[in-house]
Design brief:
There is one protein chain. 44% of the residues lie in helices and 31% in strands. With 195 residues, the protein is of the alpha+beta class. It folds into 2 domains: 53 residues; 117 residues, Nuclear Transport Factor 2, Chain: A. A 6-stranded mixed beta sheet has the order 2-1-6-5-4-3.
C-alpha cells in the first residue's frame, strides 16, 4: 500500500499535461492496466492525436525513480529516527538522565512486567523513571538494539541489556505521533545468567 500511495501522490501533483504524457507513454509501451489505474487515480485524459512528444517514457521513468527514492529515503529516515529514540532511552537509563530519557516516551506510555512476587504489574513509564533522578550512572552494563521493525506509523524493537549477573530484555512498541516517533509501551523480563 505504501509503495502504491507514494507514486499516486506524486502523480496527482503533476500538471494535467504531464499526467497525459506519462499516461500516453504507458499506453504506447503496452502497459494498459497501469494506464487505467493511474487514469482513475489522477483523472487525466489520453488524447493520442494531441501528443507530439516522443519522450513520454523518460517522463514516466523519472517519476518511478523519484517515487522509489522517496520511499527508500522515508524508510531510512524513520529507521534512523527510531534508533535515536531508542538510544535516548538507553543512554538516559544508563546515565540516570531523566531529561534525555523523557524525550523517548509518550506521556501516556506504559511499562509492564510479570514478577514471581507481585505477578502482573503495569504503570506509567515516565512516572516510574522519575525514580532514577539523582542516582549514579550504571557502568556495569552493555546495551544493544537487537532489531527494529517498521510498518507505516507503527514499529517495534527489541533491546537487550546485559549485566554481569543478569540479562534484561525490553520489547518496545513505538508510534509516530504528530511526526515524531515515541515509545508507547515497554514490556520487559529479567533472566539471571546463572539460572
Amino acid at each position: 500500500m505504501f509503495l502504491i500511495c507514494r507514486p499516486i501522490l506524486i502523480f496527482r501533483l503533476l500538471s494535467p499535461d504531464n499526467r497525459t504524457y506519462i499516461l500516453t507513454a504507458l499506453y504506447k509501451a503496452g502497459i494498459t492496466g497501469l494506464v487505467y489505474f493511474f487514469k482513475w487515480q489522477g483523472g487525466a485524459q489520453i488524447d493520442l492525436l494531441k501528443i507530439k512528444n516522443r519522450n513520454h517514457m523518460k517522463a514516466f521513468l523519472l517519476l518511478l525513480m523519484i517515487c522509489s527514492a522517496s520511499t527508500a529515503f522515508s524508510q531510512k529516515s524513520d529507521y534512523e529516527q527510531i534508533e535515536k529514540v531508542l538510544w535516548n532511552y538507553i543512554d538516559g537509563d544508563t546515565n540516570k538522565d531523566y531529561e534525555t530519557l523523557k524525550k523517548s516516551f509518550h506521556k501516556n506510555a506504559t511499562m509492564k512486567y510479570v514478577s514471581s512476587k507481585t505477578g502482573y504489574t503495569e504503570f506509567n513509564a515516565l512516572e516510574a523513571f522519575k525514580s532514577i533522578i539523582g542516582k549514579k550512572p550504571e557502568t556495569d552494563r552493555v546495551s544493544r538494539i537487537e532489531y527494529i521493525n517498521i510498518a507505516g506509523r507503527a514499529a517495534n524493537a527489541k533491546i537487550e541489556v546485559v549485566y554481569p549477573s543478569a540479562v534484561i530484555v525490553d520489547y518496545i512498541s513505538l508510534l509516530k505521533v504528530e511526526g515524531e516517533w515515541k515509545i508507547v509501551s515497554k514490556i520487559f523480563s529479567k533472566k539471571n545468567i546463572n539460572d
